[in-house]
């Protein structure tokens, strides 16, 4: 059954069918009935109102098989518009998408304040601008922190927030339903429904950038826990002889892989400030200090990916974030370490590199908004034709 679909009675059947079509389409009615363990007649009754509401449509392709030929079902992009915003400590990255999370417009804006009301105004203003004043069905906002109820930011260290009713603030400014989510959970949902791992029932997402993140989908569901937002993947030990992170852990994933840590190592080694791009450029030129730092980071990526695959028992990992650039210089070192840390008889690991940047994070937030809107869409009256 597809992510976040619940139950199989009445409107719940339509909700389950719509969710499954969005994630797995094109899908035949027979396959859809099989996925949801429903009879063909029940599935036919559930699909008709989805087509009538313009939420799904039949493709032009005809499937031949037992019984009558059929046309697969797919989600309809339509003219419904959704907003997605990813907050950092300095900026808001925003997109407006259609119902299939296709990016229609995107932009970024610096935050002039961390006051929740000010940030809410910035987010709403940017989304309205990107939507060109078209009404939004809903919007999602993701951030580094936790919002267990989808409304209240329990904690957001980069913004200095605790117990902020941020969903209410943005909603009052935007005039559309708003859902708040942890940024990694939202990114994982986006990869699952519309991204690099669309339709897969089990996979992991690893992000490498200012910090290290881990998202997981098991049995077609995004794994969400109360500790989302604590950055626990950043404390995984990778090298007992490596540098220490800010928390004092030696050779952990933050110390080895996070961009600020790489910059700090290079700055100490070269005895002058060095940015991430310069570290990579010097490593590519075989400068000894930066070459070893980047090679160590690449080996650390290989070890981290092997640990995720071994412990979560997944065959697909989506890797995202600016820190992926170390693999452009030392990708061979990553692959060697990954091979060394995997059982030689284990299934081949499918690594899917997502280099779309913060746009994909914002699309993940839009995906959460799309998911939250589905029940309302199937309960809305059918417009007369």
TrEMBL record:
Database matches in Pfam families: MarR (PF01047), ROK (PF00480)
Domain HTH marR-type, residue spans: 14-57
InterPro entries xrefs: ATPase_NBD (IPR043129), HTH_MarR-typ (IPR000835), ROK (IPR000600), WH-like_DNA-bd_sf (IPR036388), WH_DNA-bd_sf (IPR036390)
Family, as annotated: Belongs to the ROK (NagC/XylR) family.
Protein name: ROK family transcriptional regulator
Organism expressing this protein natively: Demequina litoralis
